[in-house]
Design a protein that fits this description.
- With 417 residues, this protein is of the alpha/beta class.
- The chain has helices at residues 15-27, 34-46, 58-68, 85-93, 112-124, 152-161, 220-229, 238-242, 263-274, 276-293, 329-338, 354-360, 368-373, 388-404, 407-416, and strands at residues 51-55, 76-80, 97-101, 137-140, 165-169, 177-178, 187-188, 196-200, 213-217, 300-301, 309-310, 316-320, 377-380.
- Helices cover 39% and strands 12% of the residues.
- Strands 1-9-8-5-4-2-3 form a seven-stranded mixed β-sheet, with helices on both faces. A three-stranded antiparallel β-sheet has the order 7-6-11, with no helix packed on it. Strands 10-12-13 form a three-stranded antiparallel β-sheet, with no helix packed on it.
- It starts with 14 loop residues before the first helix and ends with a helix.
């Protein structure tokens, strides 16, 4: 069985990354320094952004973005319930209130119609969270689930109409883009798609630095604030202080954080960034093969694809058609794992976690799409460098589980008796 083991994800590293890390180790400068600066400049160019601030995680980027935007205790922020912990927890770091928004049933991204509904309910005092009627809604934090971008124009129009800032959780969405139609130009994720866009370089992301993140923005003041607060709120960074033309002196401008990226991590990121589109194309090729392989499997619903999206394919989330199966999602996953196929679920919605249910009183019926769809979700392996043998093992295993546990199979057996 071990020879058929297929991990959920495997980082795709080349000799270039290894050599750059070795060069960093030999340089004597290991923490934030010239390679972080080089990585930031290259990433800003790759996203057509004015500023890029390298950080030790996407969570740090989200936190610093909200801090720079001066989110206050008691402020309300629209957050998708279908997301990872970080999106909402950074709101809580600042003692603000995440207003959970349901997901679109097709894309799994934040549903702007439900966001409007939540704002109306808040003003009427009909939301589960015990909030005052005058609680200000100050921002929205869209997430591009799996790397399928939302309609950025619609998000911006929504935010403008409600006087909200946008902090984009783009952890899955590099490189990704969207356009209105085939005649429109592509807009990259991070290219004026939000007030601040925050990316992840965690080990299983589309490009990696091991641990790491990036905040990009067009706003000079926000970039300065995030950069300062990423390193204890100092008046200038460590590299500047210890370079030949730097000064030993500095000023603490605010009580900041320790969120800086290291040169060791940036050394990996520089070359991952150079190969980002190549890696995306490999994931896309695997996605197309999955679409072809599962096209006739009635027990599965496949993720959305769209010619007006440049999909990063960080995830390939299938949905089980439970009415056609004799088993539930949890048993399906156990059978996958038993056959040596790594998988995951993206995600248990936030309102179904004890903290958000107990602290704010969210109920399943207030977020019905996410409450229902998450019970059917399974994310399959889709990493670059996936061998043909690994791919076929995933496909054959999924098909076998569907066939053996299909209600159609059961009816056929009963009819033949």
């Amino acid at each position: 069985m071990s020879q058929n083991r297929v991990p959920f994800f495997r980082p795709h590293l080349s000799d270039c990354e290894v050599e750059e890390v070795v060069d960093t180790l030999r340089s004597g400068w290991l923490t934030t320094g010239p390679k972080v600066t080089k990585f930031e400049q290259a990433f800003a160019a790759a996203t057509r952004s004015q500023h890029a601030v390298a950080l030790n995680s996407c969570t740090a980027a989200l936190h610093l973005a909200l801090e720079a935007l001066e989110v206050q205790p008691g402020d309300a922020v629209l957050v998708p319930t279908m997301t990872f912990a970080a999106t909402a927890e950074v709101v809580r770091y600042l003692r603000a209130i995440p207003i959970l928004v349901d997901c679109d049933p097709i894309t799994l991204n934040l549903d702007l119609e439900d966001a409007s509904h939540k704002i109306r309910q808040l003003k009427k005092g009909n939301l589960s969270p015990r909030l005052a009627l005058d609680t200000p809604v100050v921002g929205i934090m869209p997430v591009h689930v799996g790397g399928f971008m939302m309609n950025s124009k619609a998000v911006i129009e929504f935010a403008t109409s409600h006087n909200l800032w946008i902090v984009e959780d783009a952890a899955h969405a590099f490189p990704a883009a969207w356009r209105e139609d085939a005649n429109a130009p592509w807009q990259l994720c991070g290219e004026n798609t939000a007030t601040v866009s925050c990316f992840s370089f965690y080990a299983n992301k589309t490009i990696t630095t091991g641990e790491g993140g990036m905040a990009v923005t067009e706003n000079d003041a926000l970039a300065r604030r995030m950069r300062s607060m990423s390193l204890h709120g100092l008046s200038h960074d460590a590299w500047g202080r210890y370079s030949e033309r730097g000064s030993w002196d500095y000023r603490i401008m605010a009580p900041g954080f320790k969120y800086n990226l290291t040169d060791i991590a940036a050394a990996i990121g520089i070359h991952q960034l150079e190969r980002a589109e190549q890696l995306r194309q490999e994931r896309e090729a695997n996605a197309k093969r999955y679409f072809e392989a599962f096209a006739d499997v009635a027990e599965l619903e496949l993720p959305i694809d769209d010619p007006n999206r440049l999909h990063s394919w960080h995830l390939f989330p299938i949905r089980l058609v439970l009415e056609r199966l004799q088993i539930n999602r949890d048993v399906f996953i156990e059978e996958l794992k038993g056959a040596g196929v790594g998988c995951s679920v993206h995600w248990r919605p936030l309102h179904l976690h004890p903290y958000y249910a107990e602290t704010f009183g969210w109920k399943k019926h207030e977020l019905p799409v996410a409450s229902s769809v998450w019970q059917r979700l399974v994310s399959l392996p889709i990493y670059p460098g996936m061998s043909n043998e690994e791919f076929l093992h995933v496909v054959e295993t999924v098909k076998s589980i569907c066939l053996v546990n299909s209600r159609r199979t059961r009816r056929t057996k009963v009819a033949s008796m």
